[in-house]
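User: I'll paste a sequence; please echo it back and then give the predicted structure.

Assistant: Echoing your sequence first, then the prediction.
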Amino acid sequence: MNLNRIPLVLSLAVFALLALAPDASAQLFKPRKVKRPGAYISKQPPAKIDRGLESQINPENSTVVVSLSQQRAFLKIRGTDSVYIDTPISSGKRAGSTPTGNFTVLEKDADHRSSIYGDFVDRRGRVVRSGVSLKVDSAPAGTRYLGAPMKFFCRITWSGVGMHVGILPGYPASHGCIRLPSDIAPLIYQKVKIGTPVTVIQ
């Protein structure tokens, strides 16, 4: 068979099928409803706070456990099973980008900004390019780098990983940090100190 004729034969076959089965063509080419972006965001169980433990837990006796497989973080009273906060998180999207192991809070900064990820802005602070990485992007002429906000940042590694306010799409989506809901991050921030143990498990 002449190979040059194959596309023509296939086109004629498809045309014949659609002509003979108008219902099938209507199904195949009918416009689909466009979902809102929120419909693609997985719904994680909301954060739970045990208000009965609020007066008992403090920076001297608190510990944080982060479960990557569950995409949850737990603020607990150290040495007990008492969980003050059980919250959804979003960890690193690449395997290993959120390290596992035993850490401590190394730094606290309520108004921290990323030193790697952010935007290029002009002299008036207007965004020229958003979502940039200083590892790969160069600033256009006349712009400067403005780091992405990482409110209530609690650093756990000197390579940049920490816990902070961020978007939680329902799955691992960060560059390695542990994103927290905006209403939960300040509560954890208040109950930990530099030196508080943080355990990250699979």
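The two ends are 57 Å apart (CA to CA). The helical segments are 6-20, 22-29, 185-191.
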